[in-house]
Each structure stands twice: as structure tokens, then as C-alpha cells.
Amino acid sequence: MTTTLFGIPNCDTVKRARTWMDTQGVPYTFHDFRKNGLPDAALDRWLQAPGWEALLNRRGTTWRQLDEATRASVVDAASARAVLAAHPTLIKRPVVEWQPARVVTVGFDPAAWTAHAAGKA
């Protein structure tokens, strides 16, 4: 199994993450939310760990464009799942499923990623 990096290609953080993976020689597959969709099974795994609070990007443009009622309705994993499935760009990026450890990380953290890439985390 290969490590998978999920995101959108025009996101600056995803660009930095992909560059880091390439320069570190970490083999990975890139999954574009916009082009390839958001896999239901992956979203369910992410809601288990690291959890809906870590996944939901409340600072981004997509969040600000939602109506107040929708934003207020996100109070638990089930409500977050519905909003994230409808608006995948609300997911904090990138999400990485590290293999073979099956660890999921959210966001770009080069220091933490070094351990994951080495299989030590």
C-alpha cells in the first residue's frame, strides 16, 4: 500500500506538502478532492481518527461562505460528516494516510512527517 495525500492541487499548503514528499523521496499517491471526489470510506476513517474537529477547516473561504445556520449545525461527527461530504474543501488540508502504519495526519507539519515517512510514528 502507498501513502496517500488528499487535497486540492491549487492549495498552497498542499503544494508545499507535495514538494516536501518529493524532496524527501516519500512515495505517495495524490488524491484530488475536486477531480476524484471524496471517498466515503476515507471520510469515515478520518472522522474516527483524527476526529471531526481536526478535519473541519473553520478558517477557510468555504466555511465563511456557508450560511450561519449551516455553520451552527456542525456540532458533532455526524453533522460534520454531512457538511464535509457536501463541501470537501472544508477539510483541512492536506490529509495524509501514511502507510504501512495506517496513521492519518491533518495539515502539513514537516517535523512530524519526518517520523511518519521513516515509519517510526
Automatic annotation (TrEMBL):
InterPro entries: Arsenate_reductase-like, Thioredoxin-like_sf, Tscrpt_reg_Spx/MgsR
Highest taxon listed in the record's lineage: Bacteria
PANTHER family found in the cross-reference section: ARSENATE REDUCTASE, PROTEIN YFFB
NCBIfam families: arsC_related (TIGR01617), PRK10853.1 (NF008107)
Recorded family membership: Belongs to the ArsC family.
Name the record gives this protein: ArsC family reductase
Organism the protein comes from: Variovorax rhizosphaerae
